[in-house]
Design a protein that fits this description.
about 850 residues; alpha+beta; Gyrase A, domain 2; Topoisomerase, domain 3; Neuraminidase; five-stranded mixed sheet; about 30% helix
């Protein structure tokens, strides 16, 4: 009976362990052998093997070009069997001046373009080494680096190049491995050489010391680096982000138009992609001010022209381009490289230090190689000198010897020669016996002794080795002396909506019914003083424009409510509407409570040292610095003043802090006091007593004294008057005040008092919907204690005036025409007579 041994050699393996081991091997192979650069020469294996192949083919910078197909084939066949397409793509990139700061390959033919055009096939293109490649390969023949067998062990390849030029820092690197990704920025060779020199002289220096010499990355395509913090983080910690923008200038055209001309673009962005993105933004109306995009680049340089429409703000368009197109990118720096076969994140000093250590080792190995070679030659020459001194005996010995081995043995035994010396004597030509040749041997021997002494001195002295590195760096600076391409500009934050808004004057209109909108001032046509005007806002019946504010699109609009809260909006955040549109309800922009109403709107360009003074219905006043309201929340608002129970905010004014204030109550009393009597308080405070009120009375208006204007007081039954501010003596705050209008029983309660100029116009609205528009020029100035005149004839006895609004549309500085009032019209009395 036979025994079946089929399964005797089966080895049991844990699947999980095998997967871990296999994946780890694969990951390390990708990390070490494919994706990450070596810190010493800055090259990945594929790049290094291409340069070695060029060296094997003797394709120096002065050699004839060879077909790229030949170079790729040799690289594939001898060192890097990963497909000709991958090798050719790597070769092409090494030749592109817009991809690599110091190209390592000198290409002839179509190697692609910054527009994104692909290179020609490798059978059409030719290449040879560029000058920086010779620096990387310099001294390779002096046994300066270790070698390893190639993939099929038919030849050897260097593990790293001697790298006389600091390739990693100058050209940067990018690659994605398993669990690691590197993205290192290129730099200017002059700055890197200066930094390495400084590190050699000051081994204990800090990274910040080095950054005084290495100013910033220097990208092949130039551009503007925005700020220093990003690359300083990378220099200090090995990781950071650099904001890189295209470089542009503005050209003024003869037809009042302007062009934005980009002459440099961000690194690793092709021009065609930028143009396509700009066109898409114009189509989507994200950028509205562009009329044409043209590429006028030629051999003299790049010119990407963006033509603007007439009247557009070029800097707003530039911000939009930076926001929506690749004309601004973020270059994320990850300084990860292989250090002794391990991937490490490195700061600037560490990268320079590893390069310096590599060069020290290379120079030592080169000097040792030269020393060994010199000593070997000197040893031979010593033997030749002995032979010349004993030439007759040596000739006799050689003639008597039966064969060469016997002669060699006898020479070694009789004259104390080594095997190498004996062989050299046996191979020596007779012409070396002439006097001239003997002198040459002696001279060569003396020179070798001098070199040997020098080599030993260098190897024994760290300073001498570092001096050689300094000399190499100085030579590199002289040979590759180039100015920086990338500028270092000021830091920029994220581009906000405001950065993309044109700064222009706008009219903001807020209606009594709570609708708001903004319009360009060009919506209003200029008219003479007698014009009928145009409608500035389409309103519902009994609604009218209560506030019209002129301000820049980038101004803040402080909106105060009767409940003592303040909101702010940027003017550009208010929806822009047509002249006849009613606008948008304010409740859609602000979170107002059910019975909360916008009381006043104050435009502010800057939160400077001015003061806001507030008054409440119960007679409280509060003065607070404008700056305290600079962080109001847009939708939720913040507290502007703390109100007591049953109190409400009635007015807010912006002052210089040194004005006089007049408070007016609904029972016709007014008090004038100096604003200085109310000290400046914090935002969340109640304020101080401004006016003492009788039972049932309340403050209805606050005015800032302007001696060039008058104060207009209007009562609910249609009576009113215009008085001079001089009639109101200055008292101390907190008093009951003096009469501002007499005969309250006939006039009714005071509705509002307001500061007016001689040619201002007022709009009055009654509870029955009657609307009257009057000019203050029609009324002469009356005394403070008079009863006023009839302003408004109401059709019903129980009708009352509920609102008075100054028409700011008549501002002379703007020359904006009178607004056409919509609603039921009322008529004014005949020219009024004063009533006592």
């Amino acid at each position: 009976m036979s025994t079946d041994n089929t399964f005797d050699n089966i080895e049991h393996i844990d699947l999980e362990e095998e997967m871990k081991t296999s994946y780890l091997r694969y990951a390390m192979s990708v990390i070490v052998s494919r994706a990450l650069p070596d810190v010493r020469d800055g090259l990945k294996p594929s790049q290094r093997r291409i340069l070695v192949s060029l060296n094997d083919l003797n394709l120096s910078p002065k050699a004839k070009y060879r077909k790229c197909a030949k170079i790729v084939g040799d690289t594939n066949g001898n060192y890097h069997p990963h497909g000709d397409s991958a090798v050719y793509q790597t070769l092409v990139r090494l030749a592109q001046s817009f991809s690599i700061r110091y190209p390592l390959v000198d290409g002839q033919g179509n190697f692609g373009s910054v527009d994104g055009d692909p290179p020609a096939a490798m059978r059409y293109t030719e290449a040879r080494m560029a000058s920086p490649s010779t620096e990387l390969l310099s001294d390779l023949e002096y046994d300066t680096v270790d070698y390893q067998p190639n993939y099929d062990e038919t030849r050897s390849e260097p593990k790293v190049l001697p790298s006389r030029i600091p390739g990693l820092l100058c050209n940067g690197a990018s690659g994605i491995a398993v669990g690691f990704a590197t993205n290192m920025a290129p730099h200017n060779l002059n700055e890197i050489c200066d930094g390495i020199n400084f590190l050699i002289d000051n081994p204990d220096c800090s990274v910040d010391d080095l950054t005084l010499l290495v100013k910033a990355p220097d990208f092949p395509t130039g551009g503007v680096i925005c700020g220093r913090s990003g690359f300083l983080d990378a220099y200090r910690h090995g990781r950071g982000k650099v904001i890189l923008r295209g470089k542009y200038h503005i050209e003024d055209l003869s037809n009042d138009k302007k062009n934005i001309v980009f002459t440099e673009i961000p690194y690793q962005v092709n021009k065609t992609t930028i143009i396509d993105k700009i066109v898409d933004c114009v189509k989507d109306q994200r950028i509205k001010g562009i009329s044409d995009v043209r590429d006028e680049s030629d051999k003299d340089g790049m010119r990407l022209i963006i033509e603007l429409k007439r009247g557009e703000d070029e800097y707003v368009i530039v911000n939009q381009l930076f926001k929506f197109t690749p004309l601004q990118i973020t270059f994320a720096i990850h300084n990860i490289a292989l250090v002794k076969g391990k991937p490490l994140r490195l700061n600037l000093k560490e990268m320079m230090g590893h390069y310096k250590d590599h060069r020290v080792e290379v120079i030592r190995r080169k000097i040792q190689f030269l020393l060994n070679k010199a000593e070997a030659r000197a040893h031979i020459l010593e033997g030749l000198r002995i032979a010349i001194d004993n030439i007759d005996a040596i000739i006799e010995l050689i003639r008597a010897a039966p064969d060469a081995p016997t002669a060699r043995e006898q020479l070694m035994e009789r004259f104390g020669l080594s095997l190498l010396q004996a062989n050299a004597i046996l191979e020596m030509q007779l012409r070396r016996l002439t006097g001239l040749e003997r002198d040459k041997i002696e001279e060569e021997y003396r020179e070798l002794l001098t070199k040997i002494a020098e080599y030993k001195e260098i190897l024994a002295s760290e300073t001498r080795v570092l001096d050689i590195i300094r000399e190499d760096l100085a030579d590199l600076k002289q040979k590759y002396n180039e100015e920086r391409r990338s500028e270092i500009g000021p830091a920029v934050g994220s581009i906000t909506d405001e950065d993309m808004i044109q700064d222009e004057e706008m009219a903001v209109m807020l209606s009594h019914g709570g609708y708001i909108k903004r319009m360009a001032l060009t919506e209003f046509r200029t008219q003479g003083r007698g014009g009928v005007g145009v409608s500035g806002m389409s309103t519902q019946e009994n609604d009218f424009t209560e506030y019209m504010i002129i301000g820049s699109t980038k101004d803040y609009l402080l909106l105060f409510t009767n409940k003592g809260r303040v909101f702010w909006l940027k003017v550009y955040e208010i929806p822009q509407s047509s002249r006849t549109s009613k606008g948008r309800s304010i409740v859609n922009l602000l979170d107002l409570e059910k019975d909360e109403k916008i009381l006043t709107a104050i435009p502010v360009a800057d939160f400077d040292d001015r003061q806001l003074i507030m008054s409440t219905a119960n007679g409280q006043i509060k003065k607070t610095a404008l700056e305290a309201y600079s962080n109001a929340r847009k939708r939720l608002g913040i507290i502007a003043i703390v109100l007591g129970e049953g109190d409400s905010l009635i007015d807010v004014k912006l002052t210089d802090g040194e004005s006089d204030v007049i408070l007016t109550s609904q029972k016709g009393l007014s008090i004038r006091f100096k604003e200085e009597e109310a000290r400046s308080m914090g935002r969340v405070s109640r304020g101080v007593r401004g006016m003492s009120l009788a039972e049932g009375d309340q403050v209805i208006s606050m005015n800032i004294v302007d001696n060039e204007k008058k104060i207009m007081t209007i009562c609910e039954k249609g009576y009113g008057k215009k008085s001079s501010f001089d009639d109101y003596r200055t008292a101390h705050r907190g008093g009951r005040g003096v009469k501002t209008i007499n005969n309250i029983e006939r006039n009714g309660f005071v509705v509002r008092s307001l500061t007016v100029a001689d040619d201002d116009e007022l709009l009055m609205l009654t509870q029955e919907g009657m609307v009257l528009r009057i000019s203050t020029a029609d009324f002469r100035v009356l005394g403070r204690s008079t009863a006023g005149v009839k302003l408004f004839r109401m059709k019903k006895d129980n009708d009352r005036i509920i609102a008075i609004v100054p028409l700011a549309l008549s501002d002379e500085a703007l020359d904006i025409p009178k607004e056409e009032v919509e609603g039921k019209e009322a008529s004014a009395e005949e020219p009024p007579k004063e009533e006592s």
